[in-house]
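Schema walkthrough. Field components (list of strings):
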Amino acid sequence: MSRLPAAGGAHLVVLRNVWVHKGGTPWTMALFSVYEPILYLLAMGVGVGALVGRVPGVDVPYAAFIAPALLATAMMNSALEETTQTVYGKLAFDRYYHSLLVTPVTIRGMVAGELLWAVLRALVTGVGFLVVIVAFGLARSPLVILAVPAGLLTAFAFGAAGLAAAAYARGWHSFQYVQLVMLPMFLFATTFYPVTVYTGWVRVLVEALPLYHAIELSRGLALGEVGPGLLLNAAYLLAFGGVMLAVAQARWTTLMAR
Amino acid sequence: MALIEAQGLEKRYPGTDVKAVAGIGFQVERGEAFGFLGPNGAGKSSTMRMLACVSRPSGGTLRILDRDPVSHGRELRARLGVVPQDDALDLQLTVRENLIVYGLYFGLSLTHMRAKSAELLEFAQLAEKAGERVEHLSGGMRRRLTIARSLVNDPDILLLDEPTTGLDPQARHILWDRLFRLKSAGVTLILTTHYMDEAEQLCDRLVIMDKGLIADEGTPRELIERHVTREVLELRFPPGEQEAAGEKLGGDVEVLPDRLLCYADDGDAVLGRVTELGLHPLTALVRRATLEDVFLRLTGRSLTD
Amino acid sequence: MLPAFVYWLFRYRRTWQSTAVVSIANPLLFLLAIGAGLGTLVQGDVEGVPYLRFLAPGVLAAAAFQNAFIDAGFGVATARGRERVYQTAIATPLSPGEVMAGHLLFVGLRVFVGALAFVVVMACFGLFSSFGTALAVLLAATLTGIAPATVVAAWAVTVTDFPRLNTVFRFVVMPMYLFSGTFFSVEQLPDPLQSLMYALPLWHGADLCRSLALGTATLGTTTLHIAYLGALAVAGVLIGRVTFRKVLYV
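Field assembly_structure (string):
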């Protein structure tokens, strides 16, 4: 007879997602995910970079400056893609999680499994984009390798937020609000210029954004500017992700009881 | 020992005052096919969710396989099979993959599931469709796949929520045949339905639910004998004349929105009386009483809303 | 045609508020973050003007183009596919051509409203010298959106799987959005790419909007841009009349 699956069956939820993607290799998956950040790297890093020259206070070419930020953003987006609309579709239309509910897989297992999958998906993106950064000659420090594990923390934080958002969504249109939050976050969270551009309360506001910390962490490691501040960035992401995970767990439990 | 024992079982959803299930008691024995009948909103699905250990009872006691479904939910779910009303198949996987992956959720091994899925596909008459995406299956095939899926863990109890709703007549008969085989093989079946012919075909014993309560319980035959006469005369009148005709006729008559049902041991005799009274029904039919008559008797009032 | 247009207006009543927020928020954020923020890093002028002045009309054209693709592409494919709006419409005396025209009119309205919001934001940044300039830029941006919209609609009505729309969006619209002289001049691009961009509609739209906004427009280039975009719009309508009929009268 079978034994109950460990960890609430989280690994089985991951396995199912891997199974669905079994047609593609991790490399085609990575290629697909790095395509967009490469476009941005070319347009902003190279194109606009020619207008910018050097970033004041930063001793690297513009493309090298924005590349780690795009890495963090790409990993964040991978995690969000796997958790927001994808999960909402399986929740509200396919009723996939309802079909799991009657098995020994627990609700905690479902949430943990989807989050783990999102983080794995981001890992593939991260490794792919790291190769691009190195190939473009934008690596400034061997520590750039650590930007990928840092990105996993980013993926954890945003993946958890995505799972919470998916469970609160009332229809596809709800994700417009996610866009309304994500676009300004992407634009303002120091992807394209240092935080010193801002002063006063705007700067405080920007420094409160989780993506700002993700980018600081990624950029600090990629440019080899390591300091205790990075621990603070990591702690922020961990805390943000932790809170979001708790919110997601609670919301999923209520939702599945209906 | 009964496989399932419920006493005073209640379910009230948070934020509402109405009890979806308002205190019901029943027992299900091993190998039995047990049915819940009732109109929409009678509390059947809520009861089934509690039996599937995915919904906490708000009151009363429920024991499944001699365990408490709240504290032992996970273990119990590992021993149940569930066929939900909406199938909820994994649309991104093929027919065979649906079975294999579902088996993994129960902690079964991949090797075991490869063999088991072949056996189940055979049973569900879907072997030829093994490699197809679920999207391309007909409604009847999907339902058979859902039943096959519910059997991956060789469940002690199989729960089916309206197994043939929305299927065409051929598909229903194929499905009934499969369920009958399961029953003959000793699987305990619990099903909800609002099709009386289905209940008569499949159920050894059933309860009729209405407004969250059990209206009556018994075998199909017992229920018919208890609540209706041997024969029924069905009469249709032009719109508007129904009520008046019913009153004029008197006796044991049920006035439905579209027709009159006259309960009698000799239907033809009643038909004779109808003509004597000078009533001119558009159609008249004498037939044997069925479970549907019991159902209408016990829950008829709630149908008119 | 009018009833089909009115249908879309009725639906718009329910969603226009949230769309309006997005229409205003997007340009505002873009101009603040990229124009004002990134602009501080850009040394000196770009084509003789500060970066914000250079960027704004380009992004306006790109936004009109992208919104038109989303509305005409996903909107038309959904109306034909999942929602079956068209099938319901042609069961009435409406012809496929009228169904298409009604929907295109609505897409045009949406593009116009989006461009209007953008132009108002630009005016708040003090980027226009006169009311007439703002009006000319608004009309130019609307044309930049409508021209590809008719072609996209003519194609989208034949599309049954959404992923294909996504693919075109990623591999055609996104690169055009970024490289058609929107964020930086196409002259910075290596030659074969530069020529390619000159052949594509968004460059014409962006250059039209920018030259009008900066007051550098000449009669020759303006006529060329308008003729190119106008021809594209007409071609889309002509193709659409065929594809809509073919798909809806199966």
